[in-house]
Design goal:
This protein is an alpha+beta fold. It has a single domain (3-21, 80-207), classed as Jelly Rolls. The protein has helices spanning 27-30, 37-49, 58-71, 73-76; strands at residues 3-6, 10-13, 19-22, 88-94, 102-108, 116-117, 123-129, 131-139, 149-157, 162-165, 170-176, 181-187, 196-199, 204-207. The strands form three sheets. A seven-stranded mixed sheet has the order 3-2-10-7-12-5-4, with helices on one face. A four-stranded mixed sheet has the order 1-9-8-11, with no helix packed on it. Strands 6-13-14 form a three-stranded antiparallel sheet, with no helix packed on it. Strand 13 (196-199) and strand 14 form a beta hairpin. The longest helix has 14 residues, at 58-71. The relative contact order is 0.24. Mean pLDDT is 91; it is low at 2-6.
Length: 208
């Protein structure tokens, strides 16, 4: 398993743990002043409403997330105080009945490590501050343990990096470095029946 350091890059992680670096848009093509948060939400919704396959919209959605993080100082200042027990703090940026997306900013204390999990739908995460080590996993065909997974690669993301996931992509997140990691996240509609937390030791999975 190889760890790769990336900076100011756009990434796509697929269901089987394979990943690729995507060419990001040019910075000067993203400049829009002012670029309000409500405009971002509207443009995201417009992209999804015209999509046949939401996963195919990930390049457009990554561009919108990069446009937001490039132009919005407000987004850069939203930090949640982590819970001392879990090491995680979350700010929900938008919550409306019937709105199918999750938009939030998460703060991780250094040393915080998530479970091995997928999200049950597409997702995009932009690192705003700190260092975020993602470990990618893949399912292994095993008749005895249908939820068996193994690690594929590790990538350390720095501020300015954006990573996107297909619905079945499996990963684990660790906040590394000496300062909290802060990340902006945009996720598709949550389907709890497809969202799993994997135990790589017992080879079992549970919905969460």
């Amino acid at each position: 398993m190889v760890e790769i350091m990336l900076k100011q890059r756009d990434l796509l992680v697929m269901d089987d743990g394979r990943w690729q670096v995507c060419k990001p848009p040019k910075q000067w093509d993203l400049l829009r002043t002012p670029y309000r948060f409500h405009r971002f939400l509207t443009e995201v919704e417009d992209v999804l409403q015209t999509a046949i396959d939401e996963t195919q919209c990930l390049p457009q959605l990554r561009r919108l997330v990069r446009q937001l993080t490039t132009n919005s100082y407000w987004i850069q200042t939203q930090y949640a105080t982590p819970d001392p027990t879990t090491g995680i703090g979350v700010i929900t940026l938008y919550d409306e009945i019937g709105y199918p997306l999750t938009v939030q900013i998460t703060t991780y204390m250094p040393g915080t490590v998530s479970s091995v999990h997928n999200h049950g739908n597409w997702g995009i995460v932009a690192v705003l501050k700190g260092e975020d080590r993602n470990t990618f996993w893949r399912r292994i065909k095993d008749p005895q343990f249908p939820h068996r997974v193994e690690p594929v690669a590790e990538i350390t993301l720095l501020p300015g990096d954006i990573i996107s996931f297909t619905p079945g992509a499996i990963h684990q997140v660790a906040a590394v470095g000496d300062e909290p990691t802060v990340a902006f996240s945009l996720y598709g509609e949550t389907h709890h029946s497809r969202r799993f937390e994997f135990d790589p030791t017992t080879h079992v999975a549970k919905n969460f």
